[in-house]
Amino acid sequence: MTAGNSAAQPPKTFLDFAARFPDLAGAHEKIAAAAEAHGPLDKKTIELVKIGISLGAGLETAVRSHVRRALEHGATELEIEQVILLAYNTCGWPRTVAAWKWAREQIQRS
User: Fold this and answer.
1) Torsion, CA 41, CA 95, CA 100, CA 56, rounded to 10
2) Which has the least CB within 10 A, 19, 43, 45, 88?
């Protein structure tokens, strides 16, 4: 989990769950780190991919989190927007528009 300002912290529910079940939270973090280390993608690209995955799953909080992280790793608004637009044919209009809204809100907060 990241330290720093509250905007960079995971949602309270995640933190509460992790505090209640630290072994599961630790395993979750290890799996995420192992998956990220298991290939050549840089952090920016990983976060852009995760935006698309989160959009496809309809996960608002995850979309917002990965938009924030993508920006932190140098992604531009246009790159984030393109990732969202690429999901349209596969995920459909409603999820694409919703994710675009979530991303815009997150970008404006950053």
Assistant:
1) -10
2) 19
